[in-house]
């Protein structure tokens, strides 16, 4: 907790000592709670008996001991919880958590959640708006017994507004939030950004809000509060300079491929064998770019001297640069640009990204031993601290792997656990 003395030799994360009750599923909530787990919080993931998080069955691919060795890919498409494998999607956002099975459609299951919430610091849920209130598990139902609880509700549209009850999925949010209007090539169809950006973005905002609420709790009177995060709000916020460009000009931005509306040249150019990305982000890079490409004529052209002129004369400059880059291989282009200190890169796929010595040096490829699937690998945490490290302390859990151990920690004895089984709250 904030203000507590820490052992300088400890490997505990900065949120060590905090407990997070994770009632979320799929991506946005689990991404949030994974970050809290990476930061050292104790995360208890509540899952549906026999089914678990939906992403457990989103296969292929999956990690499996039986497919090409430990941690290989299972392409069978079978239910991974039954065959011992682990869905790659589930693995991606559920490390550093413990899994318990609870049927929240039963009163006995909901009573267990109330017991856990009584001692939790944070609760995260992403059910449809109104579902937690229907179960008497909303913030107002829990705060009297735990005034310090930070309760984060994540939904598609938020808890108020005309669309609060509508379903929401990432591709819908990328469309409705404006991103697909300016993503894709000029004159082409709308394109979804390749990762579920609406979910990941809202998950990041949820994490940020939770940390702010925890700090306010510590600096204030010890009370928590309810946080409301929506995917659509996150997308609207992330339109950033695209939105303010519109507010300033009155013209909604359109699809430009890899080009930038405010900076030229700042895009991917086709080479003789692939592509090179050039980021001439300030006027200081313009002379060395022309020198690297042996184009003194462009440097002498007054139209291109300043970025404003290059933006206004984008089409003319693009034609010249496209012709020049088309005569070079990608390796030649990258080498000469880097030699002249011009920001540039070829476009790499994921296999190349995680073979990068820089990524390796930053510990951005992590792995854990899964009890049934063998070695599972996933991107590491990008948060690096000088004293309180982020570490992979727990593998992404098997479904219900910690049900009994967690219940016993909260005072449930053998008879209590048997009773929960008899009432259908946990599986036999």
TrEMBL record:
Known EC number: 2.8.3.19
Keyword entries, A-Z: Transferase
Region spans: Disordered: 51-86, 373-403
Keyword Transferase: yes
Top class in the EC scheme: transferase
Pfam families: CoA_transf_3
Signal peptide boundaries: none
Gene Ontology terms for molecular function: CoA-transferase activity
Protein name as catalogued: CoA:oxalate CoA-transferase
The species this protein was found in: Halorubrum trapanicum
Organism ancestry: Archaea, Methanobacteriati, Methanobacteriota, Stenosarchaea group, Halobacteria
């Amino acid at each position: 907790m904030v203000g507590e003395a820490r052992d300088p030799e400890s490997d505990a994360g900065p949120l060590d000592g905090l407990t997070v009750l994770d009632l979320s599923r799929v991506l946005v909530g689990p991404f949030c709670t994974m970050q809290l787990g990476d930061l050292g919080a104790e995360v208890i993931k509540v899952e549906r008996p026999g089914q678990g998080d939906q992403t457990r069955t989103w296969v292929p691919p999956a990690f499996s001991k039986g497919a090409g060795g430990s941690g290989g890919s299972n392409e069978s498409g079978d239910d991974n919880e039954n065959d011992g494998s682990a869905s790659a999607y589930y693995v991606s956002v559920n490390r550093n958590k413990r899994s318990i099975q609870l049927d929240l459609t039963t009163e006995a299951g909901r009573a267990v959640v109330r017991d856990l919430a009584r001692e939790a610091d944070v609760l995260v849920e992403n059910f449809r708006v109104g579902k937690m209130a229907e179960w008497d598990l909303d913030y107002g139902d829990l705060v009297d017994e735990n005034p310090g609880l930070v309760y984060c509700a994540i939904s598609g549209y938020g808890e108020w507004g005309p669309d609060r009850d509508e379903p929401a999925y990432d591709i819908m949010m990328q469309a409705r939030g404006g991103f697909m209007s300016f993503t894709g090539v000029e004159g082409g169809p709308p394109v979804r950004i390749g990762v579920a950006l609406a979910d990941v973005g809202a998950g990041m905002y949820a994490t940020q809000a939770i940390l702010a609420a925890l700090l306010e709790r510590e600096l204030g009177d010890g009370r928590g509060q309810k946080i409301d995060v929506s995917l659509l709000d996150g997308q609207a916020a992330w339109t950033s300079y695209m939105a303010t460009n519109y507010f300033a000009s009155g013209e909604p931005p359109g699809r430009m491929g890899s080009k930038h509306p405010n900076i030229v040249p700042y895009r991917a150019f086709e080479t003789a064998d692939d592509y090179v990305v050039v980021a001439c982000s300030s006027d200081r890079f313009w002379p060395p770019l022309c020198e690297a490409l042996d184009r003194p004529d462009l440097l002498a052209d007054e139209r291109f001297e300043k970025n404003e002129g290059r933006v206004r004369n984008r089409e003319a400059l693009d034609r010249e640069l496209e012709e020049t880059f088309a005569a070079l291989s990608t390796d030649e282009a990258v080498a000469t640009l880097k030699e002249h200190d011009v920001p540039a890169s070829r476009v790499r796929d994921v296999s190349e990204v995680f073979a990068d010595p820089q990524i390796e040096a930053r510990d951005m490829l992590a792995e854990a031993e899964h009890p049934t699937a063998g070695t599972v690998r996933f991107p590491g945490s990008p948060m690096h601290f000088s004293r309180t490290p982020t570490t992979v302390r727990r593998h992404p859990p098997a479904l219900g792997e910690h049900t009994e151990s967690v219940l016993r920690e909260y005072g449930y004895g053998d008879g209590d656990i048997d009773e929960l089984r008899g009432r259908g709250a946990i599986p036999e």
